[in-house]
Amino acid sequence: MSDAGPAEQHPVRVHELRLVVTAADYDEALRFYRDELGLPERGAFSSPDGRVTILDAGRATLELTDPNHAEFIDEVEVGRRVAGHIRVAFQVDDSKAVTARLAAAGAEVVAEPTRTPWNSLNSRLEAPGALQLTLFTELGDGAGEGVSEGVSERSDQAE
């Protein structure tokens, strides 16, 4: 008998993470994510009663957090607990510009870009499909100097 766990006995290789969102206003959600956020279309399919479009969102990761850390993230990015159990985060080149673009396209800005303790500039939006989004831009080495764990520099205060 082997002491190896199930993963060691039969390794599983996941090839893609696909987040599936059911949007009541499909056309608005498609316009927002494809045309405004710029996610390229990988495929589109229809059935007699509906449609689905697969958009390429780059590399995918699954971020798991416990409720206490989720509350900490909300406090840093927004100043209060606002997210449900699912929040989608997109890394972008310029979170300030993309936040403005998506707000003009119909997203509700929950929090303007905020400098975080983990060296990124993060904003929070309510977007089509009933998704809460974080847009983040990595600031690089040294950008977070003077920002300690648990302390945020809100961009509206820092500027």
From TrEMBL:
PROSITE patterns in alphabetical order: VOC
Domain VOC: 13-138
SUPFAM superfamilies assigned to the protein according to its UniProt record, in alphabetical order: Glyoxalase/Bleomycin resistance protein/Dihydroxybiphenyl dioxygenase
Pfam families from the UniProt entry: Glyoxalase (PF00903)
Superkingdom of source: Bacteria
Protein name (Swiss-Prot/TrEMBL): VOC domain-containing protein
Organism: Streptomyces shaanxiensis
